[in-house]
Backbone:
């Protein structure tokens, strides 16, 4: 079975979360639990890069709000050259009042920033 959300935790200081267009709600819970577990085990704060380039048909901010409650998050980089990504970043900034949530049009740029910061 194909996962509708792919998690890459094999990076030093950031997690990459890639959302497909069609999302299975069970995958959301699995992905959130996987990221929460990684954050618990991390030795230092981690940046999360969330790729919404596929313009997923899901309220992404609900899942991300759960993850952002963890104190071991260094920042959140929302990726996608579409309205969903821009709106998700804006909604999360408003809901959480966090200053470390940023939007980027490309995954390469967001990952470069996550690596350096």
Residues:
């Amino acid at each position: 079975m194909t996962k509708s959300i792919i998690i890459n935790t094999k990076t030093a200081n950031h997690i990459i979360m890639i959302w497909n267009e069609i999302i299975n709600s069970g995958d959301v819970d699995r992905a959130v639990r996987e990221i929460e577990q990684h954050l618990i085990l991390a030795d230092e704060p981690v940046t999360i890069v969330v790729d919404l380039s596929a313009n997923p048909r899901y309220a992404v901010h609900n899942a991300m709000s759960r993850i952002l409650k963890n104190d071991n998050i260094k920042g959140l980089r929302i990726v996608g050259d579409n309205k969903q990504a821009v709106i998700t970043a804006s909604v999360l900034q408003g809901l959480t009042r966090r200053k470390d949530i940023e939007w980027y049009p490309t995954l390469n740029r967001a990952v470069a920033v996550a690596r350096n910061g």
Observations:
- The chain is about 40% helix and 25% strand.
- Residues 79 and 104 are 5 Å apart (CA to CA).
- The chain has one domain: 5-116.
